[in-house]
C-alpha cells in the first residue's frame, strides 16, 4: 500500500514495472520491502530503506507508473535516455543531468503516459514523517553528520519543487549508485548504503545552489490541512469524522476546523459532503452501479440517507440525475 497524508492509493502503481520485469521486457535490478519490487531486504539490513532499484528500458513501453504516493522520500535519476515525469501540475522530461525528489505527500507519476527508452534509478527512504508539519528523522545507515542531515531535511521541507538540474559531482554519484545496483554480491547492500549516502550528500550541494529561500508555510499546520483536503476526494468512502480528519493532520478539532474554514470557506463535514456528492454524481452519470453501491462508494451505509443528502444538494433524486445524464441531446431544429 502506498499511503501519504493526501490519500491512500490501493492499486499497486509498481505492478506494471513488476510485470515488465517478469516478462523480460526490461532489465530490472531492485531491492525492496512490503509491496515494492525486487529482492526482499532482510530485517535489519538498511532499516528505513523501502526500495531501491534500476530499470533499463531499450524500447518505448506500453505502460507507465500512474499517480501515486510513497511512504518515504523518493530520489529518482536518469543516466541514459529520457522519460516523462510529473508531480502535481508540473511536468518534466527527465534525462541525464536531472534528479527528482518527492516527499511522502507529493503525488507523482513516471511516464506521460508511457515509459520511454531510458535507464532510471531510484531509492525510497523513510524519514519518520507523512505530513508537512512533522519533523524528519533519517535512517541510521545514512553516512552523513547529523548537522548535514538536519540541514538537508530543512532544505527539502522548506521547498516544494521536485526536479533539479545537477552538476558533475551528482552525476558521478548517481553513476556509482547505478554500478552498485547492477553489481549484486557480497556486501552489495553495504555498497548501496554508501552510494545512496553519497547521493544525499551531493543533494545538499544541489539544493544550496538554488537561490530560493525556504518557505515557512510549507511546514505549517495550514499547509498540512491543505494537503489533506486536496487528497480527500480520493478517500470519500472512508468513515470520516471531524475528529479523525483532525487526527490525520496531527491537530486538534478546533485548530483543524479553523484551518479548513480558512482554506475552503466551509466546515470539514460540509466540504466532505460536497466531495461525496460530486463523486456520487460522477458514478451515476458514468457507470451502471446501483444507488446502494454508489452510496457505499461515497461513505454512506444507507442508500436512503445518501438519496436524501443527494436531493438536498442537487435538488433532484439520484435516479433523476442518472436519467438526465443519459438522456439523448435534442435534435437540431
Automatic annotation (TrEMBL):
Alphabetic keyword roster: DNA-binding, Transcription, Transcription regulation
Domain of life according to the entry: Bacteria
InterPro entries assigned to the protein according to its UniProt record, in alphabetical order: AraC_XylS_family_regulators, Homeodomain-like_sf, HTH_AraC, HTH_AraC-typ_CS, RmlC_Cupin_sf, Tscrpt_reg_AraC-type_HTH
Native source organism of the sequence: Quadrisphaera setariae
UniProt-listed SUPFAM superfamilies: Homeodomain-like, RmlC-like cupins
Keyword DNA-binding appears in the UniProt entry: yes
An MF annotation (GO) of this entry: sequence-specific DNA binding
Pfam entry (one): HTH_18
Name this protein carries in UniProt: Helix-turn-helix domain-containing protein
Domain HTH araC/xylS-type: 226-324
Keyword 4Fe-4S annotated: no
SMART domains: HTH_ARAC
Amino acid at each position: 500500500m502506498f499511503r501519504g497524508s493526501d490519500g491512500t492509493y490501493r492499486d499497486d502503481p509498481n505492478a506494471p514495472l513488476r510485470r515488465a520485469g517478469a516478462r523480460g521486457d526490461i532489465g530490472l535490478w531492485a531491492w525492496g520491502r512490503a509491496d515494492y519490487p525486487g529482492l526482499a531486504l532482510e530485517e535489519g539490513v538498511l532499516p528505513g530503506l523501502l526500495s531501491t532499484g534500476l530499470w533499463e528500458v531499450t524500447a518505448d513501453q506500453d505502460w507507465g507508473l500512474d499517480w501515486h504516493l510513497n511512504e518515504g522520500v523518493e530520489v529518482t535519476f536518469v543516466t541514459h535516455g529520457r522519460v516523462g515525469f510529473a508531480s502535481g501540475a508540473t511536468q518534466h522530461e527527465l534525462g541525464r543531468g536531472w534528479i527528482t525528489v518527492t516527499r511522502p505527500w507529493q503525488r507523482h507519476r513516471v511516464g506521460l503516459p508511457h515509459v520511454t527508452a531510458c535507464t532510471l534509478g531510484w531509492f525510497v527512504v523513510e524519514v519518520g514523517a507523512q505530513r508537512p508539519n512533522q519533523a524528519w528523522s533519517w535512517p541510521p545507515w545514512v553516512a552523513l553528520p547529523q548537522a548535514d542531515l538536519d540541514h538537508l531535511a530543512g532544505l527539502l521541507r522548506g521547498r516544494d519543487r521536485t526536479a533539479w538540474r545537477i552538476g558533475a559531482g551528482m552525476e558521478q554519484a548517481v553513476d556509482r549508485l547505478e554500478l552498485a545496483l547492477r553489481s549484486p554480491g557480497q556486501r552489495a547492500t553495504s555498497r548501496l548504503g554508501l552510494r545512496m549516502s553519497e547521493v544525499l550528500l551531493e543533494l545538499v550541494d544541489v539544493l544550496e545552489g538554488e537561490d530560493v529561500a525556504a518557505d515557512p508555510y510549507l511546514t505549517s499546520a495550514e499547509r498540512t490541512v491543505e494537503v489533506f483536503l486536496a487528497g480527500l476526494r480520493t478517500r470519500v468512502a472512508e468513515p470520516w469524522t471531524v475528529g479523525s480528519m483532525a487526527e490525520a493532520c496531527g491537530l486538534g478539532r478546533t485548530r483543524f476546523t479553523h484551518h479548513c474554514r480558512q482554506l475552503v470557506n466551509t466546515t470539514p463535514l460540509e466540504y466532505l459532503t460536497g466531495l461525496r456528492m460530486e463523486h456520487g454524481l460522477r458514478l451515476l452519470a458514468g457507470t451502471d452501479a446501483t444507488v446502494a453501491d454508489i452510496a457505499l462508494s461515497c461513505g454512506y451505509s444507507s442508500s436512503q440517507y445518501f438519496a436524501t443528502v443527494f436531493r438536498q444538494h442537487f435538488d433532484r433524486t439520484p435516479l433523476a440525475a442518472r436519467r438526465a445524464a443519459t438522456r439523448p441531446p435534442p435534435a437540431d431544429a
